[in-house]
Amino acid sequence: MSRFWSPIVHSLTPYVAGEQPVISGLVKLNTNESPYGPSPLALEAISQATADTLRLYPDPTARDLRAAIAESFGLDANEVFVGNGSDEVLAHTFQGLLNHDGPLLFPDITYSFYPTYCRLYGIAFQQIPVDGEMRVRLDDYRRPCGAIILPNPNAPTGIGLPLAEVESLLRDRPDQVVVIDEAYVDFGGESAVPLVRHYPNLLVIQTLSKSRGLAGLRVGFAVGQRPLIEALERVKDSFNSYPLDRLALAGALAAWKDREWFERHRELIVASRQRLAAALRELGFEVLPSSANFLFARHPGKVGAVLAGELRSRKILVRRFSAARIEDFLRISIGTDEECDRLLAALGEILQ
Ligand SMILES: Cc1ncc(COP(=O)(O)O)c(C=O)c1O
């Protein structure tokens, strides 16, 4: 607290990011990063961009990257917006598209940055409880509201929504913006991007942090029809004209074009997820059905905080949330098979 703070600062509840450890040798399964990568072509492009040209500002319109993303979705470059991680794209979306007369709706168990943005931008919100199986029930979103945001697959549960259900919500809510946050869609979700053509109220947000192994580069994007994208551009150009630096633009473009790397590594992660889920169930865990690069699991015989603490003392990091209903769950990012085996060995020991 300080008398120098602007009034709004007193009412903020900042997001708490997962631990980025300073000591080495930890098995890091706590922030849903990729255990692989990134594409060697991305590294090559970044090193090429590390040149005398760094004295120049980057392209404020990120033209080449937006064109490449648009092309792969059959869209126009001006239907794509890029930002410094999808967190920044989300922030601009909350400010530019989700502040209306009615409350913004999102699940009670979801990405915990959403309520943080609402407080930052003064957006009224209502959290809709997920059901007993931790599923988002879209019927509960058919109520008066200002806008809707849903991650698909949801985080931290990993549970995906069928595209037909998303489309029926879009059809029912033509006067509200519906944002689908697809940070994890490449690991088995059904993307709403093909619906962008048909629904002027739909914005889809994705990231290169997870399935492209580029969490450290900070690149995310949104796709939607021109009026929605224009709102994001207006917010961005009132905030920071150059959210992506020259290295990020070069690396993201090369990573995006390396389809082969992308397909191979997402398949590896999905296979490891299936293997890890089966092994956890054998250890007695309840594991929610995941379409993401993480699992959400709890053990009936162990309190979540104790389990997470015992793993940490064995140099294995997983994420745990203290919110009601999920305090005993661990969110476990999918590592390499070797990392997953270390986790399973440690859990076997702890549960003995
Ligand atoms: C649901 C969801 N959306 C968005 C993000 C932000 O990702 P980034 O800012 O790295 O693109 C995350 C990060 O973990 C997430 O879980």
TrEMBL record:
<dbReference type="GO" id="GO:0004400">
    <property type="term" value="F:histidinol-phosphate transaminase activity"/>
</dbReference>
<keyword id="KW-0808">Transferase</keyword>
<keyword id="KW-0368">Histidine biosynthesis</keyword>
<dbReference type="GO" id="GO:0000105">
    <property type="term" value="P:L-histidine biosynthetic process"/>
</dbReference>
<dbReference type="InterPro" id="IPR015421">
    <property type="entry name" value="PyrdxlP-dep_Trfase_major"/>
</dbReference>
<dbReference type="InterPro" id="IPR050106">
    <property type="entry name" value="HistidinolP_aminotransfase"/>
</dbReference>
<feature type="modified residue" description="N6-(pyridoxal phosphate)lysine">
    <location>
        <position position="210"/>
    </location>
</feature>
<feature type="domain" description="Aminotransferase class I/classII large">
    <location>
        <begin position="26"/>
        <end position="347"/>
    </location>
</feature>
<dbReference type="InterPro" id="IPR015422">
    <property type="entry name" value="PyrdxlP-dep_Trfase_small"/>
</dbReference>
<dbReference type="InterPro" id="IPR004839">
    <property type="entry name" value="Aminotransferase_I/II_large"/>
</dbReference>
<dbReference type="InterPro" id="IPR001917">
    <property type="entry name" value="Aminotrans_II_pyridoxalP_BS"/>
</dbReference>
<comment type="pathway">
    <text>Amino-acid biosynthesis; L-histidine biosynthesis; L-histidine from 5-phospho-alpha-D-ribose 1-diphosphate: step 7/9.</text>
</comment>
<dbReference type="GO" id="GO:0030170">
    <property type="term" value="F:pyridoxal phosphate binding"/>
</dbReference>
<dbReference type="InterPro" id="IPR005861">
    <property type="entry name" value="HisP_aminotrans"/>
</dbReference>
<keyword id="KW-0032">Aminotransferase</keyword>
<keyword id="KW-0663">Pyridoxal phosphate</keyword>
<keyword id="KW-0028">Amino-acid biosynthesis</keyword>
<dbReference type="Pfam" id="PF00155">
    <property type="entry name" value="Aminotran_1_2"/>
</dbReference>
<dbReference type="InterPro" id="IPR015424">
    <property type="entry name" value="PyrdxlP-dep_Trfase"/>
</dbReference>
<protein>
    <recommendedName>
        <fullName>Histidinol-phosphate aminotransferase</fullName>
        <ecNumber>2.6.1.9</ecNumber>
    </recommendedName>
</protein>
<comment type="similarity">
    <text>Belongs to the class-II pyridoxal-phosphate-dependent aminotransferase family. Histidinol-phosphate aminotransferase subfamily.</text>
</comment>
<comment type="subunit">
    <text>Homodimer.</text>
</comment>
